[in-house]
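Fig. S4 source data, part A: sequence.
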Amino acid sequence: MIAPFLVMLLFGIFAFGWAMNAVSTVRYTLETSSLPAAASRWRI
């Protein structure tokens, strides 16, 4: 009776973790790709 609830809870935790991983990956990529542009902009 409680098995469907546990399966959905596990799926929700997995989806939330995957979403947080995707957000941090995008944020890290944006920071590393925009860093040289910002550095060259301030060098002028």
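Fig. S4 source data, part B ends here. The CA atoms of residues 8 and 14 lie 10 Å apart.
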